[in-house]
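cache lookup: miss for this entity combination. No prior model stored, computing from scratch. Input as submitted by user K.M.:
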Amino acid sequence: MKDVVLRAEGLSLSFPGVLAFRAISFALHRREVLAIVGPSGCGKSSLFNVIAGLQAPSEGRVEVLGQPVAGATGHVGYMLQKDLLLPWRSVLDNVLLGLEIRGVKRAEAEARARALIEAYGLKGFEAAKPGTLSGGMRQRVAFMRTLAPDPEVVLLDEPFSALDFQTKLLLQREVQSIIRERAKSAILVTHDIGEAIVMADRVLVLSRRPGTIKSTHVIALPDAVRDPVEARRTPEFQAHFDAIWSDLDQPVEAAPR
Amino acid sequence: MTPSRKWGGFSPALLAKQVLLVAGILAAWEWGVRSGVMAAYIYGQPSGIYAKARGLIASGELLTHTWVTAQEAVAGFLIGSTLGSLCGLLLWLSPGFAAVVRPVMIAINGVPKIALAPLIIVWFGIGMEAKIAIAAILTFIVSLIATFAGTREVDQDLIRLMRSLGASRFQTWRKVVAPATLPWIVSALRLNVGFALIGAVVGEYISAKEGLGYLVYFSGTLYDLNAVWTGIFALMALALVLDRCVTFIEQKARWA
Ligand SMILES: Nc1ncnc2c1ncn2[C@@H]1O[C@H](COP(=O)(O)OP(=O)(O)OP(=O)(O)O)[C@@H](O)[C@H]1O
Ligand SMILES: [Mg+2]
């Protein structure tokens, strides 16, 4: 079948006194966008930390392109709700950050960064400081920074949740098409079921803490519908929405003890 | 969250009010002494201070004293602030070492540093070096503590981001922690103008042959209050000039 880019096998993570998630296994294929939804506190961000190698799992393993992940080596791109742009660096220099860390030569790095900036609608803003940009543009720069080192897998942790609705829809479509175009794959954590459905090929629903995979939904929207707004009008969207919604647990805080 | 500059810009209306305020205080003071409400030998007298200052300026003494104190304060400021900021930044590289020295830093910070002055006189003698050393120690500690506190305020998500990009601890330090701490370093510089002058003047109080601290202290023992005031005003002027210099550095060091 399609080639597997990332594989998680039997992942568990416990903090002292807290089991964050347990027994999580899945495979991510090339060009695939996998969404993860689950109640607040069920361990989604912790799962990303493990996948990115920032945190060792208590059990299980992660493989990227067949290689086991050992520590944070920049094997995945990581994007958060906060854009985390460095305010003292220009847009160009922010996009360059990952390449600098890799030790890529300045001329080559700059060519790559400029190409990205141009391709995705930020031309003319190379020298601007992040403080002068809108929230949507800043998040776009953050996405360019994530893409610049050319990671196989991009982890998106609620990347659009701080944006206004219109900007959010725009970026959802953009990010999705960029990932497909560049033959990458992505895992998207979101609280927005609609966002999960329009962006992802598959949606994993996690249970409340300790998070474990409760159900998997393969998203099938009519092929012609590319637009996130259009997609929301289809009966298929509604069916997926209802199915995922009924699988979602109450958040941890509200759970009876 | 980020400390910022408090004073800025120039406004003639504001300046006029400031001049008026100072002139008002001086006039009330002069009147108080002339009418006999205040004793000149306890409070000094503006007209006397003016005469004294003219004399000290004409003889070149005031300039010499000011120049000596300025050199001591600036040298101490530069040494202390630079080393303090650098050490505060470097501590971030080794959380283990930072944990070990933290109690020591807290203890030293709790001691009135002036209490160390006699030790320094013993170690460095009574020359300019001792005054520079006192000013350097005061400013070192302020910069060290402010800078170290600044490094701990750096957004942990930024550090996670750097790690996820595969950055080493040193790369994270150089590309994120150090620049992000810059506002804290600069705000410590502003405090250090005052501390450097305190260091130099206290050193001169203890033992010196020249400097504004010497002028103030020595004139005080002679009950020459007008000379004391002249020295104090010269210190104020010096503080304002140094503060301006820091403002200049601040503007250069702005990153956003
Ligand atoms: N360093 C840590 N030490 C101890 N417990 C932690 C740590 N990090 C996270 N946790 C706990 O692990 C659980 C999962 O946290 P995590 O941030 O992964 O949840 P999440 O699913 O991302 O939540 P949200 O949807 O609110 O972002 C939480 O109960 C949290 O309190
Ligand atoms: Mg989270």
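stored under new cache key. The pocket of adenosine-5'-triphosphate (ligand 1) is lined by residues A 15, 18, 20, 40-46, 209 (CB under 6 Å).
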